[in-house]
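### Sample
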Amino acid sequence: PFCRSLFTAAFGLAGRRRLPCHHALISSGAGGQAETEKTTAPTAMLRHLLLKLRATGPVTVAEYMREALTNPGQGYYTRGGGIGESGDFVTSPEISQIFGELIGIWYISEWIAMGKPKAFQLVELGPGRGTLTDDILRVFNQLASLLSKCDVSIHLVEVSPKLSKTQALILTGGKVQSNPEDSSAYMKAVSKTGIPIFWYRDIQDVPPGYSFYLAHEFFDALPIHKFQRTEKGWREVLVDADPEVPDQLRFVLSPSSTPATENFIQPEERRDHVEVCPEAGVIIQRLACRIEKDGGAALVADYGHDGTKMDTFRGFRNHKPHDVLKAPGTADLTADVDFSYLRKMIQGRTATLGPIKQREFLKNMGIDLRLQVLLQNSHDTQTREQLLHSYDMLMNPEKMGDCFNFFALLPHHRLLHPDKKHKPESKAPVAPVAGFDELLLK
């Protein structure tokens, strides 16, 4: 499916969006590296949490994350988050247009490999500012002749009113219809290239149908439970008010086992500290069930590990590590995705590929060839330097190249040769899955 004609057509893109200069600090842990801050007055979110803790006692880390990130009034994401150079963190699509273009090619490649269905929905979970979808739509437009007989629609799952407005501005120029009566979406519009776009607050609101799903830096922001092995057995890590320091939070251990301890710790667990994200398990199950029933595929790109890491809960503010318990609601909170947990939650409903490192996936997708095309079309030194800087950010193992992983969900039949049921001895190759197989340009 990843034939040269498709590759050449997509990478014939001449237009570039302007690439701002970005600097990002990638850290694998928060302990000891957080920026020092002067003592400031407690934030509205901190005051809210302190009142809650006085009334209820310690809360789980998951409850703390949920409040700090998505509280309707003061949550970090509901207020708009801080994506970009002027914010708290920078994402791959904001660093280089190449990233989004290659993701767009991945979906086209899978659409071809699956027999070019007459319609598909592209569903993105947590679309940020809309930059990634915008780059994907540009690829779809470049390959419009290929998609001419396919009914394509975009479906964005976004809880932040502020971010949804930003997405609408980038993707449509701002012309949207709020609360359309004819759908479960809270907003709808048409992209600058003529493709319908719908916004939802929950993935369950997205209509069923053949769909490609995208989750880029989505799962790492979902609430986690943290557990510590002790001499008395597993105990859950909780957040409480510090009785000795006014307006300050601290971590404590539950005095006994909690319901989460009983349900989320596996008997065979060997680590001494474990983070579990049950919400991620629920969402990945929903994606797997939809793919199993309606067809399609899902691509997950995120910080992560395969069941090996322990304490990865950290915060980011102004592109620097930030104490996760300081000034809640003003910093991004994140934890590495446990891909082994996601795989276990799918329970074989779909096939899975990965996780593989971002630099391997992008190399397999042809990032080197795309970079050369852009460099050849660049006529000024500053643009060329920016392209090379962005490439280094995405691919360097010490920057984003090894921090991020790609993981895919595919129907089982996608990885089986069609003749295998009737001719088990058949040696004909299965169509390779772009990004997860080495790119060969014949």
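The longest strand covers residues 296-305. This sample (Protein arginine methyltransferase NDUFAF7) is used throughout the tutorial notebook.
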